[in-house]
Amino acid sequence: NAGVTQTPKFRILKIGQSMTLQCTQDMNHNYMYWYRQDPGMGLKLIYYSVGAGITDKGEVPNGYNVSRSTTEDFPLRLELAAPSQTSVYFCASSREGNTIYFGEGSWLTVV
Amino acid sequence: QKEVEQDPGPLSVPEGAIVSLNCTYSNSAFQYFMWYRQYSRKGPELLMYTYSSGNKEDGRFTAQVDKSSKYISLFIRDSQPSDSATYLCAMNGGSNYKLTFGKGTLLTVNP
């Protein structure tokens, strides 16, 4: 009963480094999302995908990239990490786009 | 005016109390309304899902939607310490598969 799985759970990056947050879902959902959550700021949509091969920007896409080569996987790439990218990142998926299911989160610190 | 407004709290109640959590919104196109519960250092989990106006009950939880007032509520009866979490409202317009979230209300239920 895996649902949405994210890795890594915790990561410390140095300024300027790059990394990929992995996300996979086993529910055969078409829609997948990446959010970031900062204290007092709620959930902000970074990127989303409505199916394999299709991605689009959300509210806060700068500094990030995504790809969706399969239905199951939706990795988030951080290029040239900056302290402003210190946050908690949640991957999510949805069958129909209304009810979405979240992963457990990835805590990222950029120092 | 923000699309979704939610009082961040914090809200502290004694065990057994009835809790009322609320959100207001400005977009009249919203038709689908959700409540998520988020425990500390965990991902949000879907708690309640309603379509259009009306009430929906699930155990100790009742979700209400008043589209005429653009106001949604979540009631928790006989609150328990295990209900201590952040509660986020979310909504969308049906044809848009991106949810708009409130910033969350932090609830603490004291034994």
What order do the helices and strands of chain A follow? EEEEEEEEEEE
Give start-end ranges of low-pLDDT stretches of chain B: none
Q: How helical, in percent, are the residues of chain A?
A: under 10%
Helical content of chain B stands at under 10%
Secondary structural class of chain B: mainly beta
Question: How does this structure look, described?
Answer:
The complex is a heterodimer of chains A (111) and B (111). By secondary structure, chain A is an all-beta fold. Helices cover 0% and strands 53% of the residues of chain A. In chain A, strands 2, 4, 5, 6, 9, 10 and 11 form a 7-stranded mixed β-sheet that branches. Chain A has a 4-stranded antiparallel β-sheet with strand order 1-3-8-7, with no helix packed on it. Chain B is an all-beta fold. In chain B, β7 and β8 form a beta hairpin. Chains A and B meet through β5, β9 and β10 of A and β4 and β5 of B.
Brief sketch in words of this structure:
Chain A has strands at 4-7, 10-13, 19-25, 31-38, 42-51, 54-57, 64-66, 76-78, 87-94, 100-102, 106-110. Chain A has 111 residues and is an all-beta fold.
